[in-house]
Design a protein that fits this description.
The chain has 353 residues and is mainly alpha-helical. The chain has a domain at 122-316: Ferritin. Helix content is 56%, strand content 6%. It has a three-stranded mixed β-sheet. The two termini are 29 Å apart.
Length: 353
């Protein structure tokens, strides 16, 4: 079974992420993981030290038979940082990739796909004909991982283990973006039923503690799970736009959406889009269709950021890149073999070293 260049795995209810269009097709889904490719997509090539440190490739594959998949590609053309244009990935696995590490990645992603599919089936059953209520539940759940990531990172700082300022900045910006998605759904009446609020809040509480545990054990697995959730959100909004686009174009945009997407302070809006140069995406909000279009595109940006996070030390704040790209040292750079990324990484290093 060969690994493909796209990350996919959540069929019909799950997405793979690669470039901007949504292309339905029926085939076997596969998941590949390449630290080198994502590094080039999220760090400038001027950082020679990082390129030398990440000259290996890790791949893993998850196959599902006879499933329709939707490939999430970039939902619009992005102005990327110099030297960050995507490159074609090689078809062969690097000799430095261990079979043990590949097996671990495959197991982690397989568990994530199973858990995400299970939750999606429940939501499909409960919210088949209640669109805004479903969106309210999705947005309540979707912002939880960023709280969990920041909690663990703050704990590590308290213990004096390591500091990652860029990770904290980006994850807070992601939670800020998801909070405004939630406010939009509330203004549209998605939280009007007590049952919906009860369900969303209790799922979110369980999800928080689960994500904290996953992030301590294996940050890579926690980030991939969040990518799966964001991918489903992208697919959900994309289908909604195709089904109700004409109707949405005749409806006014909520005030909170206009303030968020067209306000004067767009620092946090730029901050969570780690593959984009700040100030290159400025939405125009004229109706409700534009609102959901931008929410969908936000989810695509979250997916790309979560993919970048799955490679240790590859995440940079977009503003930090502009400020200190020429400097040799950065606030979040992780030296090679400086520490274990999580419990799974510690065990792997103890076995392979």
């Amino acid at each position: 079974m060969a690994a493909t260049v796209a990350i996919s795995g959540i069929s019909s209810r799950t997405l793979g992420i690669s470039r901007p269009l949504v292309t339905p097709r029926r085939s076997r889904a596969a998941v590949s993981y390449s630290s080198t490719h994502r590094l080039l997509c999220h760090r400038p090539v001027s950082s020679r030290r990082l390129l030398l440190r990440n000259n290996h490739q890790v791949q893993a594959t998850i196959l599902q038979d006879d499933e329709e998949k939707v490939v999430v590609e970039e939902s619009f053309k992005a102005e990327t940082f110099t030297g960050k244009e995507p490159l074609d990935e090689p078809n062969t696995t690097s000799s430095s990739t261990s079979a043990f590490e590949s097996w671990i990645i495959k197991l982690e992603q397989g568990v994530n796909v199973f858990l995400t599919d299970s939750v999606i089936k429940i939501l499909d059953t409960l919210y088949r004909d209640r669109t805004y209520a479903r969106f309210f539940v999705l947005e309540t759940i979707a912002r939880v991982p960023y709280f969990a990531f920041m909690s663990v990172l703050h704990m590590y700082e308290t213990f004096g283990w390591w500091r990652r300022a860029d990770y904290l900045k980006v994850h807070f910006a992601e939670s800020w973006n998801e909070m405004h998605h939630l406010l939009i759904m509330e203004e549209l009446g998605g939280n009007s039923w007590w049952f919906d609020r009860f369900l969303a809040q209790h799922i979110a509480t369980f999800y928080y503690f689960m994500t904290v545990f996953l992030y301590i054990v294996s940050p890579r697995m926690a980030y991939h799970f969040s990518e799966c959730v964001e991918s489903h959100a992208y697919e959900t909004y994309d289908k909604f736009l195709k089904a109700s686009g004409e109707e949405l174009k005749n409806m006014p945009a909520p005030d909170i959406a206009v303030k968020y997407y067209t306000g004067s302070d767009m620092y946090l809006f730029d901050e969570f889009q780690t593959s984009r140069v700040p100030n290159t995406r400025r939405p125009v909000i004229e109706n409700l269709y534009d609102v959901f279009l931008n929410i969908r595109d936000d989810e695509a940006e979250h997916c790309k950021t979560m993919r970048a996070c799955q490679t240790l030390g590859s995440l940079r704040s977009p503003h930090s890149i502009l400020e200190d790209d020429a400097e040799e040292d950065s606030g979040c750079a992780v030296p090679e073999a400086a520490h274990c990324e999580g419990i799974v990484d510690c065990i792997k290093k103890s076995i392979t070293s």
